Amino acid sequence: MPQIKTKLLAAAALLAAGAAHAQSAGDVIVSTGWFRVMPNSSADPLTIDSVGGRPVGMARPNTGADIEAANTIGLSLGYFVTDHISAEVVAGVPPKHDVHGDKGYGVYGKLGEVRQWSPAVLVKYHFLEPKSRFRPYIGLGVNYTWFSDETITNQQFVRREFGPNATMTASAKASWNPVFNIGATYALNDRWYLGLSVSYLPLDTRATFTTRNSAQGGATVISHTKIKIDPIVTFLNIGYRF
Fold first, then answer.
1. Which of 108, 151, 163, 241 sits CB 3.0–4.6 Å from 101 for a disulfide?
2. Helix and strand tally (H, E) in the chain?
3. How far apart are CA 183 and CA 7, in angstroms?
4. Taking Cα atoms as reference points, which of 69, 178, 52 lies closest to residue 116?
5. What is the 8-class DSSP label of residue 216?
């Protein structure tokens, strides 16, 4: 009898320990951490659409731009619909990316900067059992990206390419995009988790530039380029289970 009681107590303790790390239906997890946004960027040649309202449609050969990587703080809110399926909203402080010249524009170095807003909604499938301390997952979702603070900061570039008194403003088009996600969580105890995920967004945008040059009678030049961004985003975070 003492041995049976001991074994039963040991089994109960193991079950309790497993349940303490459970991610199961009804759980809510809030997390925060470090986003690293790494664009795999390239740009089509700059195309002059119009000068002073007159259509042109002329591409400037050997021109381009490259968007640099950036770091920011991320936030997520997840809910376990079942023991294996969760839904999650992910957002963060919009990172500011430096934009550098590429090809013939590479001699100018940094051309400007832009801030990227990319909240996403994900559905994830979690492998292994809810009581597992380590749980890998795969996810699929949708993202809406828009841009703000599009600024051309390199006046040497603007004046050499468009005239000595030229000024330039920029804007970028928003878009919906799919999100492909893979990652894992590791339970530190019954409430706290460490997480690491990697996401890929097939993302591009059309950037439009308006250039005014008082030395040419105030003629306005409208130009554009299509920029492929296609970022890989890593998210190292710590989460709390409610």
1. 108
2. 2, 17
3. 37
4. 69
5. G
Joined tokens for residue 138:
């795969």
Domain boundaries defined on the chain: 2-241
89-116: burial string, b at 16+ Cβ within 10 Å, e else:
ebebebbbbbbbbbbebeebeebbbbbb
What's CA 32's distance to the chain center, in Å? 15
Q: Which fold has domain 2-241?
A: Porin (2.40.160)
Nearest to 202 by CA among 36, 41, 88, 69: 41
* 193-210: pLDDT as tens digits: 999 999 999 999 999 999
Structure tokens at 37: 């946004």
The confidence band for 213, taking pLDDT boundaries of 50, 70 and 90, is confident
What letter does residue 128 receive in the DSSP assignment?
S
> What 3-state DSSP class applies to 8?
helix
Structure tokens at 141: 């979702």
Q: Give me the residues paired with residue 78 across strands.
A: 29, 88
What does the alpha-carbon distance between residue 210 and residue 224 come to, in Å, rounded to a whole number? 9
pLDDT tens sequence across 26-62? 999 999 999 999 999 999 999 999 998 899 999 999 9
- Give mean pLDDT, residues 209-226: 85
